């Protein structure tokens, strides 16, 4: 049973890591980041709505969910799935998929820092050293850029870091809500909220025609929705249930490396010693940060 949890967990991590590669492939067709994000959310929306209605229908358990809980759910859906995704898609316009994944992987360090800043939770000396080590790895990973100090590279890195920061905020803040709704229901609600936010953003700031791209763009949007979002979310939940969150965090460490491999295969990105060393250091730092005891 544990072997199946490990196997599905690995597949889920690899599928999640394919998202950045699909985004970069779609950008070859000059699609805007807002349109691409809109496609991803709209294609996944019917599935999450179906899951949500099914869960509401079969859920016989009375939970203590108040109006303010739904307001908080809306807020965390806004920052965790809308803002984080939007910053990520924008950042991928300027940096490659491998570097994007390495930067995103630092979000556990941000969870620690947010908990320390707002909830006064102690950070051990070991964790401080691990945080420093993690960001050193990110700096080294930037060495794979030919012109590391160019405005676009820095902008891309900052945008992806903001994505990691908003996602970390979502992780910190949503922890007390998930037990009330359940993982699947909370995630489905959050994805619906995110879709509403993305559609509203599109209508206010853009509202240009979206049916102007080659078919490949819509295929990639659908693939992002299903292969890189919907399916891996269930695989990861199953893996965590079977092998536990701590063991799954070890599997999650393959994310940056699977992205690098996929980027080399599908995007023909050059891989060099800076990326490899930076990724190893980041993963090592995150393992120390997330290690219990």
Question: Which range does the strand content fall in?
Answer: under 5%
Largest sheet: none
- Protein structure class: mainly alpha
Number of domains: 1
The secondary-structure element order is: HHHHHHHHHHHHH
Oligomer: single chain
First and last CA, distance: 26 Å
Q: Per the principal axes of the C-alpha atoms, what is the gross shape? A: globular
| Unreliable sequence segments | none
Please estimate the helix content: over 70%
Average the pLDDT over all residues and give the rounded result: 87
Rg, Å, rounded: 19 Å
The number of strands is 0
Detail the topology: elements first, then pairings.
Blueprint (H helix, E strand, L loop, with lengths): L1 H26 L5 H26 L8 H25 L5 H8 L2 H13 L5 H17 L9 H24 L3 H4 L1 H23 L9 H29 L1 H8 L2 H13 L5 H18 L3
Helix pairs in contact: 1-4, 1-10, 1-12, 2-3, 2-9, 2-10, 3-7, 3-9, 4-7, 4-12, 5-7, 6-13, 10-11
Molecular structure report:
The protein has helices at residues 2-27, 33-58, 67-91, 97-104, 107-119, 125-141, 151-174, 178-181, 183-205, 215-243, 245-252, 255-267, 273-290. Helix 1 (2-27) crosses helix 12, helix 3 (67-91) crosses helix 9 (183-205) and helix 4 runs antiparallel to helix 12 (255-267). It is mainly alpha-helical. The two termini are 26 Å apart. It has 13 helices and no strands. It has one domain.
């Amino acid at each position: 049973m544990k072997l199946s949890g490990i196997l599905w967990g690995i597949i889920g991590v690899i599928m999640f890591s394919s998202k950045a590669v699909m985004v970069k492939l779609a950008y070859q067709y000059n699609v805007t980041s807002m349109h691409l994000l809109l496609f991803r959310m709209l294609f996944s929306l019917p599935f999450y709505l179906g899951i949500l209605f099914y869960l509401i229908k079969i859920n016989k358990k009375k939970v203590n969910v108040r109006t303010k809980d739904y307001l908080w759910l809306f807020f965390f859906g806004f920052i965790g799935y809308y803002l984080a995704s939007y910053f990520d898609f924008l950042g991928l316009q300027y940096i490659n998929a491998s570097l994007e994944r390495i930067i995103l992987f630092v979000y556990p360090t941000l969870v620690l820092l947010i908990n320390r800043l707002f909830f006064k939770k102690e950070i051990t000396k070991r964790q401080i050293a691990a945080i420093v080590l993690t960001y050193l790895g990110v700096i080294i990973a930037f060495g794979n850029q030919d012109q590391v100090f160019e405005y676009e590279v820095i902008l891309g890195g900052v945008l992806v870091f903001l994505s990691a920061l908003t996602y970390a905020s979502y992780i910190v803040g949503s922890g007390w809500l998930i037990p009330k709704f359940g993982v699947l229901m909370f995630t489905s609600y959050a994805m619906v909220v995110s879709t509403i936010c993305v559609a509203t953003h599109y209508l206010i700031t853009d509202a240009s025609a979206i049916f102007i791209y080659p078919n490949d763009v819509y295929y990639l949007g659908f693939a992002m929705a299903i292969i890189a979002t919907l399916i891996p979310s269930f695989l990861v939940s199953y893996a965590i249930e079977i092998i536990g969150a701590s063991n799954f965090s070890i599997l999650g460490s393959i994310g940056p490396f699977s992205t690098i491999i996929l980027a080399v295969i599908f995007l023909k990105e050059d891989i060099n010693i800076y990326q490899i060393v930076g990724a190893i250091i980041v993963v090592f730092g995150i393992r120390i940060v997330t290690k219990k005891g």
